[in-house]
Specification:
The longest helix has 16 residues, at 24-39. The chain is elongated. The chain has three helices and no strands. By secondary structure, the chain is mainly alpha-helical. It has one domain (4-18, 26-58). Pfam families: DUF3813 (PF12758). Residues 39-64 are annotated as: Disordered. Residues 45-56 have a biased composition (Low complexity).
Length: 64
């Protein structure tokens, strides 16, 4: 079954990355999902979540 929070974080990060122009709401949801998942994940999952967070920063309108 896997970690539901991890899967949810991956989904929201993918949504933000694949949107034509990721709006602040999409990015905010992805960040919140990553934060929730990080606290409830294994070390290996946390490493992957950190990579997703770095990818997400490229799509954050506040970083542009």
């Amino acid at each position: 079954m896997g970690n539901r929070l991890f899967q949810e974080a991956r989904k929201y990060v993918d949504l933000a990355k694949n949107a034509d122009s990721a709006g602040p709401e999409t990015v905010s949801r992805a960040k919140n999902a990553l934060s929730s998942a990080f606290a409830n994940s294994t070390a290996a999952e946390q490493e992957q979540l950190s990579e997703m967070q770095q990818e997400l920063e490229q799509y954050d309108p506040q970083n542009r």
